[in-house]
Each structure stands twice: as structure tokens, then as C-alpha cells.
């Protein structure tokens, strides 16, 4: 009986026109229903958004973001090495789940590449884990911030809450002001208020910036 006594997969009604096919939508809803997961909040109707996906402590984070994308019927993209998108069969799967290939051997850096992607597309919702790794980090990378700043796109936090089993889009949009310290404190404030936790809390990155990150030019470095 417990299998049929589950909460609704979608907690809020979304107001964005659907951009994902109905088959994938219902597949993801069924998966979340079986897993006991839920999508809360909404993805706004803005054509271009940088999604801050936190915390990133497991490969399950990416899968749950893909399922949430299909449920809200918004194609949320994510960056992957271009080689993964060109593999037989697997490459088609990576592209179908939202992967965008980036050539890390090229002369441009990730931020420049992402800004160019935004500028050449009419619509792009790009998810970026600011920790940049599943391992515990002592600081956040700031590439996502400078991408949003470079294309004047809002940022939307996606809280991957394994305590409540939710992908939570409830926090308001955040716009860059150029004051990265103040903007980050706003982001971190929303995260602290939510009380959410990642799958492996011991791997959650510290909510800090490197001293050099307050400089507007940090995004030119290849590691961001």
C-alpha cells in the first residue's frame, strides 16, 4: 500500500510553455514517483538562465537534474567534454539528456565558450555546479557567475535536497550586480535558509570564495 500512498511529484504548477516531449515528461514523473522524489518551485519563462546546481556530491545529482528537467519540460543543458557527445550511441544519449560538448583543448576558456553559446542561441538554460567536482572543496569556482554577468542572464538556484527528496527551484531569480561578494552572500543566504543537504553532506563544498575571486578578471583563468 505504501507504493500507492505517495505525495505528488510536482508540488507547484509551472507556467512556462513546455519544451520537452510528453513521453520523457511522463517517464521522469513515473521515475520520481517510484523514487519518492518531488519537484518544487518553478523555472521562470526567461529565455536565458544560468542554473546553480547545488550541492554536487554524487553522480546521482546529474541524473536527478535531468529527471527534473523532463518533469518541468524545460531543456536544462549541462556541459560535458565534446568527445562524449561524439561517441556512437552514448553520444546520442548524452545529447538527448541535455549535454553540450565543450572542446577543452581549444584556445578559449570555459566562460568565453559558454558566453558564446548563450549569444548564439535564442534559448538556453545552462546548469553549472559551482563546486566543479564531487569532492569536497574549500571554495566555489566563479565561472557560472561571470557567465551570467557576461550575458546579463539571471541565475536560478536548483537545490538538490536529499533530506526532503526534492529538486527545489523555489528561490527567487538572482541578477549579478558586479559585486560578487554581495551577490554570493545572497545565494548562500538562500541555501542556508533552506536547510537542504546533498547526498553526501561530508563532501559539500565550503561556501567561500578565493581571495582572488573578488576581482572581475578571475573568470579569464582556465580553471574557472
Structural overview:
- The chain is of the alpha/beta class.
- It has one domain.
- Helix content is 33%, strand content 17%.
- The chain contains 7 helices and 7 strands; from the N terminus they run αββαβααβαβαββα.
- The chain has helices at residues 22-35, 60-72, 82-85, 90-96, 110-120, 143-151, 180-194, and strands at residues 38-41, 48-54, 76-81, 99-102, 124-128, 155-161, 166-169.
- Strands 1-7-6-2-5-3-4 form a 7-stranded mixed β-sheet, sandwiched between helices.
- A hairpin with a 4-residue loop joins strand 6 (155-161) and strand 7 (166-169).
- The longest helix is centred in the C-terminal third of the chain and has 15 residues, at 180-194.
- The model is unreliable at 216-224 (pLDDT under 50).
Shape: globular
Number of domains: 1
Q: What spatial order of strands do you see in the largest sheet?
A: 1-7-6-2-5-3-4
Average pLDDT number: 87
What is the strand content?
15-25%
Sheet with the most strands, sense and barrel status: 7 strands, mixed
> In angstroms, what is the radius of gyration?
17 Å
How many helices?
7
| Estimated helix fraction | 25-40%
Q: What structural category do the secondary elements indicate?
A: alpha/beta
Give the topology string: H per helix, E per strand. Answer: HEEHEHHEHEHEEH
Cα end-to-end separation: 49 Å
The beta-strand count equals 7
Poorly predicted runs are: 216-224
Amino acid at each position: 500500500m505504501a507504493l500507492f500512498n505517495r505525495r505528488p511529484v510536482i508540488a507547484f504548477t509551472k507556467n512556462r510553455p513546455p519544451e520537452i516531449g510528453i513521453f520523457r515528461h511522463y517517464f521522469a514523473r513515473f521515475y520520481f514517483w517510484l523514487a519518492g522524489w518531488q519537484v518544487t518551485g518553478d523555472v521562470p519563462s526567461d529565455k536565458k538562465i544560468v542554473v546553480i546546481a547545488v550541492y554536487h556530491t554524487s553522480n546521482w545529482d546529474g541524473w536527478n537534474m535531468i529527471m527534473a528537467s523532463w518533469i518541468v519540460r524545460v531543456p536544462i543543458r549541462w556541459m560535458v567534454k565534446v568527445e562524449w557527445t561524439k561517441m556512437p550511441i552514448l553520444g546520442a544519449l548524452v545529447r538527448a539528456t541535455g549535454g553540450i560538448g565543450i572542446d577543452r583543448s581549444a584556445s578559449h576558456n570555459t566562460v568565453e565558450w559558454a558566453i558564446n553559446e548563450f549569444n548564439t542561441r535564442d534559448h538556453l538554460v545552462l546548469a553549472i555546479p559551482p563546486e566543479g567536482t564531487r569532492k569536497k572543496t574549500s571554495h566555489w569556482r566563479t565561472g557560472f557567475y561571470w557567465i551570467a554577468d557576461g550575458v546579463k542572464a539571471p541565475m536560478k538556484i536548483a537545490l538538490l535536497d536529499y533530506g526532503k527528496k526534492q529538486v527545489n527551484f523555489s528561490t527567487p531569480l538572482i541578477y549579478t550586480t558586479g559585486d560578487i561578494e554581495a551577490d554570493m552572500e545572497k545565494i548562500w543566504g538562500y541555501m542556508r535558509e533552506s536547510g537542504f543537504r546533498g547526498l553526501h553532506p561530508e563532501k559539500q563544498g565550503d561556501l567561500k570564495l578565493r581571495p582572488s575571486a573578488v576581482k572581475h578578471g578571475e573568470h579569464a583563468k582556465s580553471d574557472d
